Amino acid sequence: MTERMGTARRWLICLAGGLLLSSPVLSAGPDNVAELQNFVIQDCGSCHGLTFRGGLGPPLRPENIDHLSEAALSAIIREGIPGTAMPPWKALLNDQDIAWISRQLKSGRLLNEKSSTGQPR
Ligand code: HEC
Predict the structure, then answer these.
(1) pLDDT digits (tens, 9 = 90+) for 40-61
(2) Domains in the chain with CATH codes
(3) How many angstroms is it from 13 CA to the middle of ligand 1?
(4) Torsion angle of alpha carbons 22, 104, 78, 28, nearest 10°?
């Protein structure tokens, strides 16, 4: 009896450890698109609004960033805007992630996908 409980407990510990180790880390690659998408909505959205209509930061819908090229957006995301609340993200996101985000912002695709899953626009 005690032997069996001990085994069960060891299994649980192994399971928990495995989950921790396999928990996703933000990095490039098509397989982390869903994470990246959530990250942008949650983290960028915390300042720019969950639907990018603006908040502490300016709105980021395609019509609002018409004046910025994808490359310009990437530079802003990478380096932030010094002297403002817009932080640099290069420590957390690699160039590929940043380019992906810029592309999504330009196309508005993130917002469309979000609204098609029943989230408020
Ligand atoms: C802590 C708040 C905060 C977070 C988080 C944040 N931003 Fe910003 N962002 C700002 C502020 C404030 C500005 C405006 C700075 C200024 O006064 O020029 C800004 C400006 C920008 C601009 C320039 C917009 C324009 O029209 O010039 C872009 C693009 C941008 N942010 C993208 C992002 C992205 C993408 C993320 C997530 C990776 C993000 N921001 C996360 C606060 C934030």
Answers:
(1) 999 999 999 999 999 999 999 9
(2) 26-116 (1.10.760.10)
(3) 41
(4) 30
